[in-house]
């Protein structure tokens, strides 16, 4: 076992993990955070996507012990003040979900994209989401939901967003 | 859960080399996007892993005094694609990096891991072959530099000894009238392996004559290859359309593509003929050259 310290969803966490344990297993089986999905387990589907230091990463291919010292953000951590994040709201509103299994992965990848670019074009979205698969093929609605989330985020906090863009 | 007996997490090259020396059988782990997939498939028992993720020395790109570009093997594909030196000097490598896997993979997979894995379809390989890359291999007691062509020994086999680490990838300086390109042919635009990877570079003189040209192919033989006959044929000449055809024909003779479920040998042969010409034309154009169409002269 290895003891690691990380920041999980903005809270510090010290935890013992096995050497051969993936970050996905740590989240789902040790911490009961089952929002992050186990899909293909070989990095093809993106259902297990979490953000490590803000960067979309397949948690199935990432050893938990290597998250030592990192900031990990999962689907459980993007709500703000007990309210769904903009990207979650628009996914629901625009029907960008059918079976929902791929959704947490999509939300996390989209969340990272919107942090960098509030108004991505459809092409930029397709490129950013190339590592996520939706077998129900709700792709059209997913693209719309991401663009709507960007608009909503801009509306919600005009001044904050302007500052982010400058950065 | 994988059967990992030991996971080393050194923070320096020296420490890592020491571990490889003292604990034989320890496998270096770069981004993990190949190693962990293989572990899932083969379920090996009691693996000993040496994670290189904490070694800052192995990350990043810089230019040396003589113009050589030195790439840290632990630079991720996202890091390669976004690096200003790569973008300015060798955009073909950025193209290759962005053609590999999808964003999540590009964010963790490293250029060194891609090369050390020895896959014939490695997206970074054709460009590194075409750029005459050199691989720096270090062990506790030695350091040696190997040309990338000598590094690939066979499918999944490379010239790195078990006690060695790849510590740098060096790209020798290129002249100013230089251009290069990488064309990946695959069924999908992301999350797919190349059916054929084609890289070409061109250096021309002020009269647009080719001083140096390189052509490299991935998935056209058991390892990535260069096409010396096609290169020799082109050197010293002004490029025209017939020469593109002929270069493609020579490249076909130098390759030995295989049948696989991804594509037949015949299909790959057609691709080598066609894409060699296309890559050459683009590299020549980027070097500042222009092919004057003989057809249009006839019409006049």
Can you tag this structure with a few keywords?
heterodimer, A: 167 residues, 6 helices, 5 strands, globular, B: 300 residues, five-stranded antiparallel β-sheet, four-stranded antiparallel β-sheet, 13 helices
By secondary-structure content and strand pairing, the structural class of chain B works out as alpha+beta
Output the helix-strand order of chain A: EEHEEEHHHHH
Number of helices of chain A: 6
Strand order of the largest sheet of chain B: 4-5-10-6-7
Helix fraction of chain A?
25-40%
Report the major sheet of chain B. 5 strands, antiparallel
| Average pLDDT over all residues of chain B | 96
**Got a strand count of chain A?**
5
Oligomeric form: heterodimer
Report strand % of chain A.
5-15%
> What global shape of chain B is seen?
globular
Number of helical regions of chain B:
13
Q: Biggest interface, and residues per chain?
A: A-B, 31 and 29 residues
Straight-line distance between termini of chain B: 71 Å
Number of β-strand runs of chain B: 14
Largest sheet of chain A: 5 strands, mixed
Helix content of chain B: 25-40%
Low-confidence stretches of chain A: none
Distance between the termini of chain A: 40 Å
